Amino acid sequence: MKxxxxxxxxxxxxxxxxxxIGSHLVDRLLADGAAHVxxxxxxxxxxxxxxxxxxxxxxxxxxxxxxxLATSLEYIFDAHEVDVVFNCATKALNYSFLNPANAFDTxxxxxxxxxxxxxxxxFKTLCHFSSSEVYGSAVYEPMDETHPRNPTxxxxxxxxxxxxxxxxxxxxxxxxxxxxxxxxxxxxxxxHKGMLAGxxxxxxxxxxxxxxxxxxxxxxxxxxxxxxxxxxxxxxxxYRLLPAGExxxxxxxxxxxxxxxxxxxxDFYGYAGEIDRRPGRPSDVQCHNASNVKVKGLIDYTLTPxxxxxxxxxxxxxxxxxxxx
Length: 325
Fold this sequence. Notes:
Elements: E1 11-15, H1 20-31, E2 36-40, H2 52-56, E3 60-63, H3 70-79, E4 84-87, H4 100-119, E5 125-129, H5 154-173, E6 176-182, E7 184-186, H6 199-208, E8 214-216, E9 222-223, E10 225-227, H7 228-241, E11 247-250, E12 256-257, H8 258-269, E13 276-278, H9 293-298, H10 306-321
Parallel strand pairs: 1-2, 1-4, 2-3, 4-5, 5-6, 6-11, 7-10, 8-13
Antiparallel strand pairs: 9-12
């Protein structure tokens, strides 16, 4: 396909842009010369603090609103001439166990709102953020883009339904929309509060606060952890080249068990105490180990070694939260 135009000088909208991945994407768009970045986020798990540097540039407009509401997106598009949309809006996977229907519906409703706006000509290109969770646990390794989709939570089912919507709208209406499918992102700014927090930040916060880490199940569950800056770098390179209607994995050709991960965090902070054992979580994915053959055939793909990225991440939490172990 003919490469899409460079994003420099264009206007981008990032749904969920005050969240973990979204806020890093906003920073990178500005660094790459975007004329303006519009952010819509209801701050469900995001934080306006994540956008502090971006807002200080004067090139970001932030709407604390809900992309699930079509009327909210309508007035935002009336106020801005948007060229490209990056859809990062979602609710945390753990939310599936609190409000399963809404966890599903959020993923579907936001993408349907955006696809209909795009169909009506309100913007040119849509980059939709899917999730490795749509695959469920690996039935073969490494997991490529043709791996069966077998979601195990309503969060993942909603992501899978959203992917199908993108693929269908592209086929029916010729939209310029594509899917990126990051595996397990980690890095600075990942939510560490409450039961919706990810395993790395919640373990770090427990240790920094004088608590004990928790391990659910036997810890043999594996994840393919990718540093958030690597995800953002790959997405913006793929923006130029990934054909409409296609999906691509973004991962590391590596897997780490949760037991090993928790031990690494303990070692970093010098914790030698007990690890609390908890029952395994229902519907927990057992194995994630992705194939990067497709993404490596499209872009110059650079990855941060897990040991380096984890150290930077844990240092970031220590700098901001403080505490001693």
